[in-house]
Design brief:
There is one protein chain. The protein is globular. By secondary structure, the chain is an alpha/beta fold. The mean pLDDT is about 95. The protein has one domain: Rossmann fold, CATH 3.40.50. The chain has twelve helices and 13 strands. The chain starts with 6 loop residues before the first strand and ends in a 21-residue tail after the last helix. The strands form four sheets. It has a seven-stranded parallel β-sheet, with helices on both faces. Strands 1-2 form a two-stranded antiparallel ribbon. Bound molecules: nicotinamide-adenine-dinucleotide (NAD). Nicotinamide-adenine-dinucleotide binds next to helix 2, strand 4 and strand 11.
Amino acid sequence: MIIQPMIRGNMCINAHPVGCAAAVRSQISSVQKWRAEQGKPKDSPKTVLVIGCSTGYGLASRIVAAFGFGATTIGVSFEKEGADTHPPKNGTPGWYNNMAFDREAKASGIESYTINGDAFSHDTRKKVIDIVKKTNKKIDLVIYSVASVVRVDPDSGKLYRSVFKPIGEALTGETIDAMTGKITPIGTDPATDEEIFNTIKVMGGEDWALWIDQLAKADVLSEGIKTVAYSYIGPSLSYAIYRDGTIGEAKKHLERTAKKMDAELQASLKGKAYISVNKGVVSRLSVSIPIIALYLSVLFKVMKKKGTHESCIEQMERLFAERLYTGDAVPTDNVGRIRIDDLEMDPMVQEEVKKRMATITQENFTQVGDLVGYRHDFLVTNGFDVEGVDYTADVASMESI
Ligand code: NAD
């Protein structure tokens, strides 16, 4: 069948299996090229667990660990599988991405194990522990890159839902339709205390801490283990919806978790726990956050003009090579966070973005913002608009790539 993108609201609700596989291969090729240019790494992870491995930052982390450093990777993600039923069932992009990753890893002789399951459940943790024990390995890097709107607490069975909402005051802002470029006003009420609590339950540090605790108890973490969870800060113009909103509260909880975990890991395994603050990119969730979507399209224009624009893969190359595995101490900011959002937060970039955001209109948007680049990233996330893929060709299977 011919597969075209199906867009509902600001979401692309289907995936192109061949396109997803091509996008993964393209990320792998760029990492291989980068490694060849860099030469031999000074230090490397050997066995890496990536929780949230199928898309965005988690997928890029896994690709860099495997193809940039030769690490064995264990990936966990929660994706809907495709099936060649009647009618055929389209899987989620991450389902095809994982398949492409495993195939390419195998072809390159790199060990990889992929688990499709709920990262929030004890059962999935047990599956990971079983793999590590069976293969006689110890994990020396755990990347926590889960982005979810729901979490079932593994002990109480209660379901929590996260929201992107401001705290204290209602918010009005604008958002952009990735396909048409139409700018529309968007508003949201302030979060209730329950919504703040629930967002922290889903996107805060509780689940990350459960992972590290259970992996440590099962004795599958190596001495000197590093673990990293991802965060975002962004510009002051997005604070009301991000840093000072419900998600910001969850990220602050994640940061407090890192401090506590770091002390515990140092004492038990000479290990380290970090937060890495990453750059804003187009992802399944970021396109639906008021203000952020418009900000990103302007940011891309400014950073591309300056020659400093990065996607997930370049961000992860820098995280691994220039922060985590330099052969020396990991550079952090004054509160202990790794910053690879440095190029985004460059004062000159932010000044220019602020100026552009203040003058944006529907008419001047294509000059002020990068609609073409933003739309491309939006489509590529679901396997569309990938270079070299013939979208008029019949896709033979929904089950495989
Ligand atoms: P993403 O949506 O691309 O990826 C999320 C991953 O989490 C996927 O692999 C998905 O399968 C997995 N996942 C979701 N629910 C799960 C579950 N119950 N069990 C197992 N896996 C599950 O998200 P992303 O944008 O790459 O974000 C990853 C992290 O990076 C988040 O912490 C996010 O806040 C942070 N971050 C994102 C941005 C950005 O602009 N997108 C910027 C900085 C930091």
